[in-house]
Write a structure and sequence with these properties.
558 residues, alpha/beta, 5-stranded mixed beta sheet, 3-stranded antiparallel beta sheet, 8 strands
């Protein structure tokens, strides 16, 4: 790995972790080892770093690698311009933060044709430097030397205006000036949102009514409010901006460039004000908008990941024979019966609700299925007609003398996504999407983790504004959460699907499929020794444990 020593020192200092452990962790990550694998099986190399610390190292490594790529691009660009110096090279080499790095690069960054560039082409840069020195008692007389008869600039006013454009751009690109304005934004910036008058009375705008005239300090703005305002702006309903005390910011900048009173000083002061309003303010406002969006994304993703973890690790019912019901009115309720391993035994549709309203017939069918397939629990999706279906099932159970299964209402978020996925098609190639969705509902009761890992985490419905946050970061975080949960709990080697096995550290899709194929051909694994059979890696013995005990499952039922 390039820059290993530098990365080790930076991460060790930032996270207050021992350098040997950080260095070995970076090497293991570079080798393709997963975070759960490193935290559990390479403690001797990491010095006992836990999963949280290794995740922080991994995240910072990704950031540093992106900065390293950016630095290579910057060095190449400046070198090709012929402006690279040893001092500038050292500044770039020593910089490992994005904002300072971009400030260093800004004066050399290729730009579209600016007013300052036009003025430089008119050879007005010496005049700009003359004005900045502020020693010329009569700037108009000095500007006369730069007037071009029949060309450009054609007069003194144009020459002075061009010189001011150059000064304005210099002010906007100066690191000290940018840091001063950043400090002002950091201390006192307010975020404001206003409604676009043309859309104020539209139905779409009403959900943003709280933000029609909203203002609060940026540093106190919660992530959900900021994301809501940005969504309103993206939809063209709101205008969102950041504001500070412009007059005070301009005065601070002018104190850096204006010395004394006089004609030159007035011209420089005007140029500084123009540079602030036209160039510097929009740039820093955009920068802080992006930074606040990143922080809001991080908070929303953190909440999303934590909610997902709690859902995945919720207590399972265990290996019980389950009836899964996907409720509905007009199209009826889709009913499936599953065995203790989650295999589909039977499916049919019943119509206990209006407009069909075959309640008596549906009651008889439910009772027959419970008796015939020895159903021990019933899972009802929490979607449309969920409450009415639960009442219907409870009424049907009242007429049964014995063998009454427990009734549960489970979340069906993402069931429709799963039913149309490749995983569902591979599992049930001969069944339609309604049957697959009901199977997913039933299996969620038996084992939430094993079933929910088959669904895109964004479709499970455990977070806000998931479509507004950075999708790459969201996917990365949620994938890490799923992987962490699977490896925390372990899998049942004899019942785990190929999809679930792929989340086990050390296994990939091919090895996971080999395990399933061997299990199908030769039956269940009966001992740790049997896991050394052909096509089955010895590493799987780490995970060959039951995910929950029968005692816990019985306690849940009772």
């Amino acid at each position: 790995m390039e820059n290993l020593k530098i990365f080790t020192q930076l991460i060790s200092n930032e996270l207050h972790l021992p350098e040997p452990g950080v260095e070995n962790t970076l090497k293991l990550l570079d080798e393709g080892c997963t975070i759960p694998f490193i935290s559990r099986y390479r403690k001797e190399r990491t010095g006992g770093l836990d999963e949280v610390q290794i995740t922080a190292i991994s995240n910072r490594l990704e950031q540093l690698q992106e900065i390293a790529k950016r630095k290579a691009t910057i060095v190449k660009t400046i070198t090709e311009l012929g402006k690279m110096t040893p001092e500038l090279q050292k500044r770039i080499d020593d910089c490992w933060e994005t904002t300072p790095l971009e400030d260093i690069y800004l004066p050399y960054k290729p730009k579209r044709r600016t007013r300052a560039q036009v003025a430089r082409e008119q050879r007005l840069e010496p005049l700009a430097q003359l004005l900045l020195m502020q020693r010329e008692p009569d700037p108009k007389r000095a500007a006369q030397r730069f007037v071009v008869v029949g060309g450009s600039p054609a007069d003194i006013a144009s020459a002075l205006s061009g010189a001011q454009d150059i000064i304005a751009e210099q002010v906007s690109e100066d690191e000290r000036s940018r840091n001063q304005v950043r400090s002002a934004f950091r201390r006192e910036a307010f975020i404001e949102s206003k409604v676009v008058k043309a859309k104020k009375d539209s139905d779409e705008a009403q959900k943003y009514s709280d933000y029609f005239d909203w203002k609060e300090p940026l540093k106190r703005c919660s992530s959900h409010r900021l994301l809501a305002m940005r969504r309103g702006a993206d939809e063209g309903i709101l205008r969102v901006s950041l504001t500070i005390d412009d007059d005070e910011a301009i005065q601070r900048l002018q104190r850096n460039y204006v010395r004394g009173n006089g004609a030159c000083q007035r011209l420089v002061a005007e140029a500084v004000e123009d540079g602030y309003k036209r160039l510097l303010l929009p740039s820093i406002e955009t920068e802080f908008m992006n930074q606040s969006k990143e922080r809001a994304d991080e908070e929303a993703i953190r909440v999303f990941a934590e909610n997902l973890r709690q859902l995945l690790l919720s207590a399972p019912l265990g290996q019980k024979r389950v009836m899964g019901i996907d409720p509905g009115f007009r199209t009826g309720c889709k009913v499936v019966c599953l065995d203790a391993q989650g295999s589909l035994l039977h499916h049919e549709a019943i119509f206990p609700h209006p407009p069909v309203n075959h309640r008596m017939q549906a009651t008889i069918h439910v009772q027959q299925m419970i008796s015939e397939y020895q159903i021990e629990a019933i899972a009802i999706g929490n979607g449309t007609a969920s409450r009415e279906t639960k009442e219907f099932v409870e009424d049907a159970l009242k007429e049964m003398a014995q063998g009454k299964p427990a009734v549960f209402v489970v979340s069906e978020d993402g069931a429709s996504v799963y039913s149309a996925s490749k995983v569902a098609r591979d599992e049930f190639p001969d069944e339609d999407v309604t049957v697959r969705g009901a199977v997913s509902i039933g299996r969620r009761l038996m084992d939430p983790l094993a079933e929910l890992v088959k669904i895109d985490p964004k479709s499970i419905g455990v977070g806000q504004y998931q479509h507004d946050v950075d999708q790459t970061k969201l996917k990365h975080s949620l994938d890490q959460t799923v992987e962490s949960c699977v490896n925390l709990v372990g899998v049942n080697l004899n019942t785990a699907s190929q999809h679930l096995l792929t989340y086990v550290s050390g296994l990939g899709p091919v090895l996971a499929q080999n395990i399933v194929d061997y299990r199908t051909a030769n039956g269940a694994f009966t001992s740790r020794a049997s896991t050394t059979a052909p096509y089955t890696p010895r590493a799987i013995t780490w995970w060959s444990k039951w995910r929950r005990t029968a005692v816990a499952a019985s306690a849940t039922l009772s």
